[in-house]
Every structure is written in C-alpha cells, then in structure tokens.
Automatic annotation (TrEMBL):
Transmembrane segments: none annotated. This is Alkaline phosphatase. It comes from Streptomyces zaomyceticus. InterPro entries: Alkaline_phosphatase (IPR001952), Alkaline_phosphatase_AS (IPR018299), Alkaline_phosphatase_core_sf (IPR017850). Residues 1-40 are annotated as: Disordered. Its EC number is 3.1.3.1. It comes from the Bacteria.
Length: 466
C-alpha cells in the first residue's frame, strides 16, 4: 500500500502525471471486474435471456449497498478501476431503478422524499411504505409480515449478513417489528415502549431476531446481544442466552466462521458495533488538501471476516439447511452509509470494493448451483458528488487520485460543514441475474422487490399444485 499521498497537488498546483499508480489494490481475492463494456455482446445477452426464462428460482440472494447511490458507484469505479473500467456490479444485463421515498407517520398518502434506511428496508421487506425510523411496521405502527418470516413459513432457510450491526435497519426490517429503529436492545426501548418485553411486547430488535430464528445471522452488534432481557422466559438473562436456547451456535472470529457447520442456526458476532472499515484516508474538509490515496486501516482486526467470506459461508450453510426447499439470503454492505455520513471517501470506496467481492461470490455460487436469482439494490443515495477540480465548493471536499492517476474531487454538501452528512432522495439502481431476472427492467419502487419475490413464490406454488 502507498502512503497518504503521492503528490502535493492542490488548486493551482502541479497536476499529477498520467499513469501515476498510487491506488491501493484490494485485499487478495477481490475480483473487481472482467473489464470492458457489455453493450453489443449478443452472446451474453442471449445467455442471460435464456437463463432468465428457466422458470422460477428456488433461492434468492438479495445484495444491498446501504447508501450506494450512482455517485458512490461512480466514485468507487473511478478509484478502483478507472473511468473506463467496470465493477462486477456493472456486469448485470437486467437493470433498472427504484424510487425510495417514505411516508408520514399516520398518513401514508403524504410523501417524505428522502428516506432513511429503516423505511427503505421495510419497503422491500414487507411491500409496505412506512415512516422514517420504522422497522417492520406500517405508517400507523402496526406490524406487517416480512420476507424472512414468510420464507420461514414456507420451510425455506433464511439468512442475514451485514458489515453493520445485526440490529441495524437493513437486517432488522427483515425479521423484527418496532416503532423506532433505536429499539436495538432491551436497554434502548425508550421510543418503543409498546414493543418492550416488560410492557408485554415482543421485545427489542435483537430479541425478535433470535425469536424469528433465521438460520444464519452474521455481522456486528455484540453489545446489544449481551444486554439483559427484562421480562418473559429469559428475564434476567442475556439475549445471548436466549439465542443459545434457540439453538444458535456463536462464532466471533473469521476462523470460527470458517469452521462452522450447518448443524444448527449460526450467530456470528464480529464486533461490539459495526465492523471496521478496511481503508482509511483523508476526510472531507473545507480547506482543500492535496490529492491523496487510501491506505489499509492499521486498526483493522486480523480476525474480522470479509463480507465475501461471510457471504460464501452463509450460502453453503443455507443450501445445506434448506434441504432442497430453497433459501432467502440478504447481504448488506452497511459501511458505505456510515462512511458517507462521515465524509470518508476511502472508507466508502473500500466498502464498495468489499460489496463487489461479495457480489462476485454470490454470482459464482448461483452459476454453479443454478435455480438462484441474484438481486442487487440500495436503500438510498448519499452525500458524495464528483465535481470539477477547480470548483469553489461551499461544502467540504476531498481530493483523491483515481486509478488512472488523475485527481478526482469529491464534494460533500448535504449539510453544513462539521455536521453529519445526510442522504439524498434520488432513485437508486436495481439489478438482477438468473431465473426471473428479466422482470427487473425500467423504473419501479422498493416495494416492488417484495412483490417480485413473493409473486415468484406464489407462482411456484401454483405450478406445483398443477
């Protein structure tokens, strides 16, 4: 890895020469791209169409980039591969976009044009629009069935994988129901009193995750699982105790994950909070610094599994536990969002690289096993923009050297300098590969992902009855 900068380029200073190679290479094994455009490749188009028409899938893998808007994709592509390079994400032939607005509490006819992760995840997990902060409930606060719950009722295996906390909105909305996303553990239920176990409710997000019992739970958030249950059968004991009683085996390291088998449900907790960002570098600031490159996070835990390794292990375990009935797996790259909130482009880019690696694992698994639909989307866009290098921005900026050695100025202006940066309301990408992938074309809404998946299940059931 290179150091923090390869040049002292700043406004008015010398530009870095073409061909400069200061960009760090991803960790070994990350297949970022096969390169080149897919346009005009009729053989690939025919192959994809043939695959898309091979009936209804038995398995569904849903990849979610939290905060992965088109700006974030472009920034990562430029840095990792160059403007003429391609990510694995770019190789999908069936693509479209989805709208992602939320609604007003108590009035789903009124729109909120900038969603948060909770309302967005609830939209595709339940098919229902809700208000910002809501997890698995409608605009009136009533719980609605989720994809993981519905899949479990069908006898399918289910899994949730994330680099964020397992009680973060994207995994939580698949298997829990609380009025506010802050109700992560028994000690944080102030805004979710009706759901608190001591008030006769179903408990916090982590308590509900364990009760819903996905076959695989991998991510961070260990601090919430160590909190004490306040009522019911496990009163006075921790949520980890509750998980053990539900049959979960706990792993906390990459080695433990690699050694885990499919003998029972698996709970992987690889940090008290979110997992660590793989790369570090200059954060956005109002006084523009020199063009820089990213470097490996010196505090990256050696025993932290990559998103790709978590994905690969989850797929193998789910396939074995499904016993032919099929599975539903959601994989989230959650640190795109948190890095973007912080104006940290290197953290964001490294998470897109990790997401692309995991996506390659999922696609390869689908190709080898068949009958698997791979879906890719995001919950919302975020705060980064590529702007001309000589612009006088009213916001904070960071200058990075892209893959081709050219400076790339990244602007952050979705809030005042020094404040946390916020989401944007633009539609986001959706892509698909495999059986039924041809349904993903043009403009849809996040709720259409729920309808797509459940519609396939209904058609599969109807065909089986004939």
């Amino acid at each position: 890895m290179s150091g923090d900068a390869t040049t002292q380029h700043a406004r008015g200073g010398p530009r870095p020469s073409r061909g400069t190679r200061g960009t760090p290479q991803p960790r070994p094994g990350i297949p970022l791209s096969s390169g080149g455009s897919v346009w005009g490749d009729s053989s690939r188009a025919e192959e994809a169409l043939a695959l898309a028409s091979t009936g209804r899938p038995r398995n569904v893998i849903l990849f979610v980039g939290d905060g992965l808007g088109e700006d974030e994709i472009t920034i990562a592509r430029n840095y990792l591969r160059g403007a003429d390079g391609r990510l694995v994400l770019d190789r999908f032939l069936f693509t479209g976009t989805v709208t992602n607005y939320s609604v007003v509490p108590g009035d789903p006819t009124r729109h909120n044009y900038v969603t948060d992760s909770a309302a967005a995840a609830t939209a595709w997990a339940t098919g229902v629009k809700t208000y910002n902060g809501a997890i698995g409930v409608d605009a009136f606060g009533a719980p609605v069935p989720t994809l993981v719950e519905l899949a479990g009722q069908r006898g399918m295996a289910t899994g949730l994988v994330t680099t964020e906390e397992l009680c973060d909105p994207t995994p939580a909305a698949m298997a829990a129901h609380v009025a506010d996303r802050s109700g992560r553990g028994p000690d944080t239920m102030e805004r979710c009193r009706a759901q608190a176990a001591e008030n006769g409710g179903p408990g916090s997000i982590v308590e509900q995750l364990v009760r819903t019992r996905p076959d695989v739970l991998l991510g961070g958030g260990g601090q919430y699982f160590r909190q004490t249950v306040r009522a019911g059968e496990f009163q006075g004991r921790t949520v980890l105790d509750q998980a053990a009683a539900a049959g979960y085996r706990l792993v906390t390291t990459a080695a433990g994950l690699a050694a885990a088998d499919a003998g029972g449900p698996l709970l992987g907790l690889f940090g008290d909070g979110a997992l660590a960002r793989a790369w570090v570098g200059p954060k956005a600031r109002t006084d523009r610094g020199p063009a820089a490159v990213c470097r490996v996070n010196p505090d990256l835990p050696a025993d932290q599994p990559t998103l790709a390794r978590m994905t690969a292990r989850a797929l193998d375990i789910l396939d074995e536990r499904a016993e032919g009935r099929g599975f539903l797996l959601q994989v989230e790259a959650g640190l795109i969002d948190t890095a973007s909130h912080d104006g940290d482009p290197c953290g964001m880019i490294s998470e897109v690289a990790a997401f692309d690696e995991a996506l390659a694992v999922g696609l390869q698994w689908a190709e080898e096993h068949g009958e698997t639909l791979v879906l890719v989307t995001a919950d919302h866009g975020h705060s980064a923009q590529i702007v001309p290098v000589d612009v006088e921005s009213p916001g904070a900026t960071t200058m990075l050297l892209a893959h081709d050695g050219e400076p790339m100025l990244i602007n952050y202006a979705t809030n005042l300098p020094g404040e946390i940066l916020v989401h944007t309301g633009a539609q986001v990408r959706v892509a698909a590969h495999g059986p039924s992938a041809a349904a993903v074309l043009g403009l849809g809404d996040q709720t259409d992902l729920f309808r797509l998946i459940t519609g396939m299940w209904e058609e599969k059931d109807a065909h089986a009855e004939v």
